[in-house]
Design brief:
The chain is α+β, with helices and mostly antiparallel strands. 25% of the residues lie in helices and 36% in strands. The chain has one domain: 6-pyruvoyl tetrahydropterin synthase/QueD (Tetrahydropterin Synthase, Chain A), CATH 3.30.479. The protein starts with a strand and ends with a strand.
Length: 121
């Protein structure tokens, strides 16, 4: 199995809804996203897929909320804007875009140093 990873980042505010229904104050993070994909076979060019293509696909997804507020995106109006849900959101969008024969292994989101969430199927 061959695996590649890309990393990208975005800046966004968010406001979690706590279990008691109250809300955290709106606050900012510089989020870091790692995407891992794999394949049993390499392409004719000897790669799993192009790093630049995977990074561009990921950047296009996070551009919806880069330099904004997560809750401005419809998904986060229905789902808490936790790091876990951010990872799942990116994963779900990417899963529709990876080339045939390439598996999306996981999306990991770092909200702050030492605080990360990973989503995979």
């Amino acid at each position: 199995m061959f695996t590649i990873n890309i990393e990208t980042c975005f800046s966004a505010d968010h406001q979690l809804v706590l279990p008691d229904g109250s809300k955290e104050p709106v606050h900012h993070h510089d989020w870091v996203v790692t995407v891992s994909v794999s394949s049993r076979e390499l392409t004719g060019a000897g790669i799993v897929m192009d790093f630049g293509e995977l990074k561009m696909m990921t950047d296009n997804i996070v551009s919806d909320f880069n330099n904004g507020r997560l809750e401005d995106v419809d998904y986060f109006q229905r789902n808490n804007s936790s790091a876990e849900n951010v990872a799942q959101f990116i994963y779900t969008k990417l899963a529709r875009q990876v080339p045939e024969g390439v598996s999306l292994d996981y999306v990991e989101v770092v909200e702050a140093p030492g605080c990360s969430a990973k989503f995979s199927k």
